[in-house]
Design a protein that fits this description.
Rossmann fold; 21 helices; 3 domains; nine-stranded mixed sheet; five-stranded parallel sheet; alpha/beta; about 650 residues; GMP Synthetase, Chain A, domain 3; Luciferase, domain 3; about 20% strand
Length: about 650
């Protein structure tokens, strides 16, 4: 069905031929409380062709780079596919990007045109116009052109809606030229340049060809049972390759997609209306949902709180024993037969004893939570970062099995995802079809035992063409077609990948111990009073932690314990508060919770200000550890002075 598709342009025309009148996109007008409006596959292609004709009319040609500064919306995908149909490549970025960041990207990528979400984005970009004055055409998706503040007569401003309308006539005028361009596009042509929001240095331009993205689409049917009957909800930034490739996957399977926002007041009503079967998100969203559920339980009656805790406790035991029985736990060494036999026997007995209670909990508690997601969700997918184990376990307990995936911008991005029919916990699943994974050392050498921890290397058509205008960095990360992900991991005996952190994140203590901070941070983040945390300790005797408290829960704690404070900064210095956090850290990171003595936190500091995107966090919410370490250098020194 998909094997003959070689470019993204092939994909959309194939879907239009198969299901021309089926709803493809569902969207709501900006700033208006209304019902979803639908765009069919046939209508989408008409819009795409109209826009591509207008873009051709203003000078866009095959091979051109087009800056694209906007958040997710239905116009984004129409514009993206219009660009693809011209054999050009877009250079996307989110609307929360700074003027300096956009200026660098537009200049470095040699962009000749720029699409922006609205006049505010154009005005922001124009403050740095001297750095990329090669762009003479700006296109806005929303808003009014007269709100753009520019007196430069050499710049032309266009509106998406006008270009769409003008294209109705222009596509007949340029019919031959447009068809020739579409027919000339190959799988080796550049589709996009995505600049990574790296944790260090300037962003690098990842060049993805049509074949890189199509590799993901070709493997889709064997990874997830998505069909034309499925309903998807889109809430992630589309300039991230994860969301973008998912939208192409929806396109290739002829599903329908509705646009929403990862904010409860918008998302929950939309979920009730859409009743999605598939939902793609990042760990932060699942964590927020978990926190929201726990907060609502605490606000309820004591009886409801008791029932919730009781059935979750029962359900968790039931779920974990079921995993053992169905071989859904990671195994790295073939166990002795009798050990396996008795584990499964215990699982059968436990499941038999708890079956009725778990079913009752599902009726009284779990089903009501699932109903909040629309009640039809069969395949929630998490990617873009590690899913905390406590979040994974909680949703599995309430019968929402999250399928965790793994990938990078440089791999288009899907490397692996948990198997739909046999999801193995604490892993990111087996490599997708057509993807090779190797566990190796620092020098690209394959480890004799692939079940031991090492660097994860990836090979296949999904690997990028390279970093734009940076052969040195490309050669440093790709050798003999093997891409060094920089992630640490190992393979189970059945082939699933288990990740354990970033190679560069490893903390080395003065005693020589190598420690991955991620498992420690994930464990601390299970605590409702902790919002963010970064473990420190490089070249120190012991580990420390920078802790950002969860503001509302901490203020509630202060109220309940009669703690007076002037402001939040003052509260973070309170002795009773510090004592409480000390207890939390000692309880969470201890021998009883599976941590070694040298992994314990011996000192910490509470930071009143949260880490922010663009400062301490990347756009994908990953911590810039070097930036945080430098910014809080004094606080880190104070941790060890106290010790």
């Amino acid at each position: 069905m998909y094997e003959n598709l070689r470019t993204l342009v092939d994909v959309i025309y194939n879907s239009k031929e198969r299901f021309p009148d089926k709803d493809f996109l569902q969207h709501k007008d900006r700033g208006v409380e209304n019902k979803f409006q639908s765009i069919s596959y046939r209508e989408f292609v008409v819009f795409m062709e109209n826009l591509s004709a207008s873009l051709y009319g203003i000078g866009v040609r095959k091979g051109d780079k087009i800056g694209f500064i906007s958040d997710n919306c239905y116009k984004w995908l129409i514009a993206d596919m219009a660009i693809q149909s011209l054999g050009a490549a877009d250079v996307p970025r989110g609307s929360d990007s700074t003027a300096d960041e956009i200026s660098y990207i537009l200049n470095h990528s040699d962009s000749k045109f720029c699409i922006a979400e609205d006049p505010a984005q154009v005005n922001k970009i124009l403050t740095e116009y001297d750095n990329f004055s090669g762009i003479k055409d700006f296109i806005i998706l929303f808003g009014k052109i007269e709100d753009i503040k520019s007196s430069d007569k050499t710049i032309r401003f266009h509106h998406f809606d006008n270009l769409l309308k003008d294209g109705e006539q222009l596509k007949n005028r340029y019919k031959r030229e447009l068809e020739e361009i579409r027919n000339s596009i190959t799988e080796e042509d550049l589709a996009t340049i995505i600049y990574t929001s790296g944790t260090t240095g300037l962003p690098k331009g990842v060049m993805l060809l049509h074949k890189n993205i199509l590799q993901n689409l070709h493997s889709m049917p064997s990874i997830m049972p998505a069909t034309e009957k499925d309903r998807w909800v889109s809430i992630l930034p589309v300039w991230h390759v994860f969301e973008r490739t998912v939208e192409y996957c929806i396109m290739v399977t002829c599903g329908s997609m509705a646009y929403s926002k990862p904010v409860a007041k918008y998302l929950l009503p939309d979920l009730a209306e859409i009743r999605p079967t598939f939902m793609v998100s990042v760990p932060r969203v699942w964590e927020a949902l978990y926190t929201g559920i726990i907060a609502n339980v605490k606000k309820g009656s004591k009886i409801k709180g008791f029932l919730f805790k009781f059935f979750v406790a029962i359900g968790t035991v039931y779920m974990k024993q079921k995993r053992i029985l169905l071989n859904r736990v990671p195994i790295f060494k073939k166990p002795f037969f009798l050990v396996t036999f008795f584990k499964k026997l215990r699982a059968v007995i436990t499941i038999s004893l708890l079956f009725v209670l778990d079913a009752l909990g599902d009726i009284l508690v779990f089903s009501k939570i699932r109903e909040k997601t629309g009640g039809a969700l069969i395949c929630p997918i998490s990617g873009g970062g590690a899913l905390p184990e406590y979040v994974d376990n909680f949703f599995s307990t309430i019968k929402i099995n999250i399928f965790e995936g793994y990938g990078l911008t440089e791999t288009s991005p899907i490397v692996s995802v948990r198997d739909f029919y046999r999801p193995v916990a604490k892993t990111v699943g087996k490599p997708a079809p057509g993807v090779e994974v190797m566990i190796g050392d620092d020098n690209w050498n394959k480890l004799p035992n692939q079940h031991e921890k090492g660097i994860v290397y990836v090979k296949g058509d999904l690997v990028m063409a390279g970093y734009y205008k940076d052969k040195e960095k490309t050669d440093a990360i790709i050798k003999d077609n093997w891409f060094n992900t920089g992630d640490l991991g190992r393979l189970t005996i059945t082939g699933e990948i288990q990740l354990s952190g970033r190679a560069k994140d490893t903390i080395v203590l003065t005693g020589g111990e190598n420690i991955e901070p991620n498992p420690i941070e994930d464990k601390l983040l299970e605590e409702p009073l902790i919002n963010q945390v970064m473990v420190v300790g490089q070249d120190k005797k012991t580990l420390g932690a920078l802790v950002v408290p969860a503001r509302e829960p901490l203020e509630e704690f202060a109220k309940q314990n009669g703690i007076a404070f002037k402001d939040f900064k003052d509260l973070c210095k309170n002795d009773k508060v510090l004592e409480e956090y000390s207890k939390i850290i000692k309880h969470r990171i201890s021998h009883h919770t599976g941590f070694k003595n040298f992994e314990k936190i011996t000192g910490f500091v509470l930071l009143p200000d949260p880490f922010e995107v663009g400062k301490e966090l990347t756009n994908s919410l990953k911590m810039k550890r070097n930036v945080i370490s430098e910014k809080y250098k004094k606080e880190i020194e104070d941790i060890y002075k106290k010790n």
